[in-house]
Write a structure and sequence with these properties.
This protein is α/β, with parallel strands linked by helices. It contains two helices and eight strands. The longest helix has 12 residues.
Length: 132
């Protein structure tokens, strides 16, 4: 048996704000939120995934946002790729820009994906042809 990829932890300045952005991007919901505003840890995940170790099959990973004092300084070494499920890539990019994303140039050149950043500057890609 192997391990399952179930969660991605993301350091940030505003866990609640970043969680709201990614909930809107992915159709996720808040699953857990630290009551202590200073600690600032928020976990979001798919509303379609049951809790517990016995859930079978592929598991959409949860995202956990944790407040840290330092800001982002360089290009991410790990990033999220998203795939539009009910619209074309250009329509999804417009939706994400309306949510607060921004275009980014990480040297991708002429590629089929579009690189954006979330409100805190974390790069992510909007893919055109890979289906979820």
């Amino acid at each position: 048996m192997a391990s399952k990829f179930t969660e991605l932890a993301i350091d940030c300045a505003d866990p609640q704000g970043l969680a709201r952005f990614w909930c809107a991007v992915l159709g996720y919901e808040v699953q857990d939120e630290d009551e202590d505003e200073d600690d600032g840890v928020v976990t979001i995940g798919s509303p379609l995934v049951p809790e517990g170790k016995d859930r079978g099959g592929p598991v959409p990973p949860a995202l956990t946002f944790a407040r840290v004092p330092e800001g982002k300084t360089v290009k991410n070494r790990l990033h999220i790729d998203v795939n539009p499920t009910d619209r074309e890539q250009d329509e999804e990019v417009r939706r994400l820009l309306d949510l607060g994303a921004r275009y980014a140039d990480v040297g991708q050149g002429e590629a089929s994906w579009i690189v954006l950043t979330d409100p805190e500057g974390n790069e992510f890609c909007v893919l055109a042809s890979r289906c979820p």
